[in-house]
Amino acid sequence: MHISNAGRWSLAALVVVIALVVAIWPRGSSDDSGTRSYADYVSQGTTPAPERAPGETDQSLAGARDRAALTACPAPAAGTTPAGPLAGITLACLADGRRIDVGAALAGRPALVNLWAYWCGPCAKELPALDEYARRAGDKVTVLTVHQDPKEGNALSALTDYGVHLPGVQDGSGRVAAAVGAPNVLPVTALIRADGTVAAVLPQPFDSADQIADMVHDKLGVVS
User: Fold this and answer.
1) Which of 3, 12, 168, 187 lies 20 to 30 Å from 104, alpha-carbon distance?
2) pLDDT digits (tens, 9 = 90+) for 111-141
3) Which residues have CB under 8 Å from 141's CB, separation 6+?
4) 3-class DSSP state of 7
5) Is 3 helix (H, G, I), strand (E, B) or coil?
């Protein structure tokens, strides 16, 4: 069968259009839960992503926890009452797997809550700066990381590679992000006042401890 020049051009154009459609068509994945927030699932009326990936247990993660050697999660201060959007949110501590009430753990002291995930490139650069800032701030500001992907084992391995020992919690379902109204990007830093209210939500990476200290001073009034 003979195809005219016009037919050939039409066929070529059709192939290009099909290729473009394939390139931009949204792709589903059997493992996309780590890139969707708790708020996404709620808005769509679907079951939220699991807090931790299926098959991961405290026993299976024990070796990774030992290698990461993370600082224990903060304990509730005596005489404080948890308040604000984080009160009542219970999550597993990355250091040892025990569950903590995030709002209670942060109550009574200004806090910096950092949302991240093991696959986030800017997070890998920011976390060491946060670690340095936390050492500088000492007891003035509580620094807590929140891992936003169900794969807790990958989080522990990443922190080991980064040499970061900050206290953190596992939150694959994105409950903290939803509570503070964080956008669906990473990293995000939420600054929490001593009374539990949210002072700022900053969807941007920070490059140095000095930059973080300036931001905390500006938003929380704490010099560190």
Assistant:
1) 187
2) 999 999 999 999 999 999 999 999 999 999 9
3) 109, 110, 111, 112, 134, 216, 220, 222, 224
4) helix
5) coil
First vs last C-alpha separation in the chain: 79
Q: What is the DSSP string of 107-165?
A: TTS-EEEEEE-TT-HHHHHHHHHHHHHHHHHGGGSEEEEEE-SS-HHHHHHHHHHHT--
187 φψ region: left (φ > 0), alpha (ψ -120 to 50), beta (else)? beta
Q: How far apart are CA 3 and CA 11, in angstroms?
A: 10
What letter does residue 35 receive in the DSSP assignment? G
- Domain contains 6: no
Q: Is residue 50 pLDDT above 70, yes or no?
A: yes
Residue 93: which domain range? 51-220
The answer to whether residue 10 sits within a structural domain is no
CATH code of the domain containing 117:
3.40.30.10
Which pTM value belongs to this model? 0.80
- Do the domain assignments include residue 21? no
